[in-house]
Design goal:
Helix 6 crosses helix 7 (122-133). The radius of gyration is 25 Å and the shape is elongated. By secondary structure, the protein is mostly helical. The longest helix has 41 residues, at 80-120. It contains 8 helices and no strands.
């Protein structure tokens, strides 16, 4: 993130100041448009459509902020094409990392729910304790409990019964 902000600041300081680069919308914008000239050429309506097609929130206000920033900078920086490619790559990498973080958060939440079910549900606790008594490690016992839960759910679905 810091490298993206620093690189963008070296080429297009007005846009770096105008946008919150940690949000998804500005990152999407940077994957398609990196230079002031490209943003000015696109204009507000084309940018709004482009961002809306990519599911960016507040596409209109984001496009307006980007075009306003581009209007304040008419100087082309030496090596602008190379820097633009770097900004594009960094923006995509940040978006990919954000996606990975989101997936990891979901996995952690699922793991936490498993642990809570072991503590709160007496049947789960009994099964877990039995597996531990059989010599299973904690992770093995939790996985066995998860498999058992899946089997119970499939049986309930097959029999069209409620839990």
């Amino acid at each position: 993130m810091n490298r993206l902000c620093g690189t963008l600041l070296s080429m297009f300081p007005a846009l770096e100041r105008a946008l919150e680069v940690t949000d998804t919308g500005p990152l999407r914008l940077l994957t398609g448009y990196q230079t002031p000239a490209a943003i000015r050429r696109a204009g507000i309506s084309r940018l709004t459509t482009w961002l809306a097609n990519r599911k960016a929130r507040n596409a209109r206000s984001l496009a307006e902020a980007a075009v306003e920033a581009a209007e304040r900078q008419h100087t082309a920086v030496p090596g602008e094409k190379t820097i633009a490619k770097l900004v594009h790559t960094l923006a995509e990498e940040v978006m990919a990392l954000n996606q990975q973080i989101s997936e990891m958060d979901k996995l952690i939440e699922g793991r936490f729910r498993e642990l809570v079910s072991v503590r709160c549900d007496p049947n789960s606790r009994k099964f877990y304790d039995r597996k531990r008594a059989e010599g299973k490690k904690h992770v093995q016992a939790v996985l066995a409990l998860a498999r058992r839960r899946v089997n119970v759910l499939w049986a309930l679905i097959g029999d069209r019964r409620c839990y």
